């Protein structure tokens, strides 16, 4: 089928005119392609991560080493999607640092240099941060497929886009953080659950 700009245009789901590189707190949801259950399963209302799920968790925590102005907040890896709260430093909401629903994941090594380490970035738009995360997790997943650790996947790991919500106050932050933490107990009726 030929490209027709009248029917094949992509509609942005981002807030028009909003600067996603500025200080702020964002609720992010990233879904797997075709909502395939790649990261584990829910057992007795708890998320049991498989090898791929643990790998996703490690790369999420690595974001704070890659981007000096970013804090990784509360998160949950679900069978076919990932919820997290990301803070681009300097937001006015005091929310506590590095809350993780998956405490069994090892913390990445801290950088001790006083200058910005090579490869570290600051001030990038949120979409570039998410793209880096998706690229790194996809690359490692492919590597594990080639090593026969993980099963093959169809075309890509993640859907092309992601959902984001700008958190505007402390009450909203705590409501969303509670939703993320309780997500495994809601799986039966979750809109992302393909059943």
UniProtKB/TrEMBL annotation:
Coiled coil ranges (UniProt) are: none
Q: Which SUPFAM superfamilies did the record assign?
A: Transposase IS200-like (SSF143422)
Give one GO biological process term.
DNA transposition
Question: Superkingdom, according to UniProt?
Answer: Bacteria
Enumerate the Gene3D superfamilies for this protein: Transposase IS200-like
The record's annotation in InterPro entries points to: RAYT_transposase, Transposase_17, Transposase_17_sf
What GO molecular function annotations does the UniProt record carry, in alphabetical order? Answer: sequence-specific DNA binding; transposase activity
- Start and end of every Transposase IS200-like domain? 21-183
Q: PANTHER family in the record, alphabetically?
A: REP-ASSOCIATED TYROSINE TRANSPOSASE
What is the protein name for this chain? Transposase IS200-like domain-containing protein
Give the source species. Anaerobacterium chartisolvens
């Amino acid at each position: 089928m030929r490209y027709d700009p009248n029917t094949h245009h992509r509609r942005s789901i981002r807030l028009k005119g909003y600067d996603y590189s500025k200080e702020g707190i964002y609720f992010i949801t990233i879904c797997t392609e075709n909502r395939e259950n790649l990261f584990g399963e829910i057992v007795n209302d708890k998320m049991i991560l498989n090898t791929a799920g643990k790998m996703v968790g490690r790369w999420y925590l690595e974001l704070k080493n890659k981007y000096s102005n970013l804090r990784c907040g509360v998160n949950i890896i679900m069978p076919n999607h990932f919820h997290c709260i990301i803070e681009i430093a300097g937001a006015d909401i005091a929310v506590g640092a590095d809350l993780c629903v998956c405490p069994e994941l090892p913390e990445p090594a801290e950088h001790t240099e006083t200058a910005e380490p090579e490869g570290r970035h600051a001030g990038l738009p949120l979409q570039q941060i998410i793209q880096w995360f998706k690229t790194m997790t996809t690359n490692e997943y492919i590597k594990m497929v080639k090593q026969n650790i993980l099963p093959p996947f169809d075309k890509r790991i993640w859907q092309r886009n992601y959902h984001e919500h700008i958190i505007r106050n402390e009450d909203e932050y705590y409501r969303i953080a509670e939703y993320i933490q309780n997500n495994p107990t809601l799986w039966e009726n979750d809109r992302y659950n393909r059943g």
